[in-house]
Design brief:
By secondary structure, the protein is α+β, with helices and mostly antiparallel strands. It is built from 2 helices and 3 strands. The model has no long low-confidence stretch (mean pLDDT 86).
Length: 88
């Protein structure tokens, strides 16, 4: 089931998403190198919100704020994101 949202609220959803990314970036930048932010990854067509590095690890952060505030919605989004970045 797909949720459709009113276009007038799109800016609010994006602002919420960007605020979460900014908080993660601020917290993460004390212990990790911020390798990229909202940048295309090579030829794969993936554009995660953040890529954090701390040798030998690389963390891909792609924030999603599901509209539906139920556990099933969060699990569905997590599964979708894991599949999206599985090739990395």
């Amino acid at each position: 089931m797909k949720a459709y949202h009113c276009m007038q609220d799109t800016a609010l959803y994006m602002a919420r998403h960007n605020a979460i990314v900014a908080r993660i970036k601020k917290a993460g930048s004390t212990k990790f190198e911020v390798h990229s932010e909202n940048q295309l990854l090579d030829h794969q067509g993936l554009r995660p919100d953040l890529v954090l590095k701390k040798a030998p690890n690389v963390f891909v952060v792609d924030v999603t704020v599901p509209f539906d505030n139920r556990l099933a919605a969060f699990e569905a989004v997590a599964t979708k994101k894991k599949g999206k970045y599985e090739q990395l």
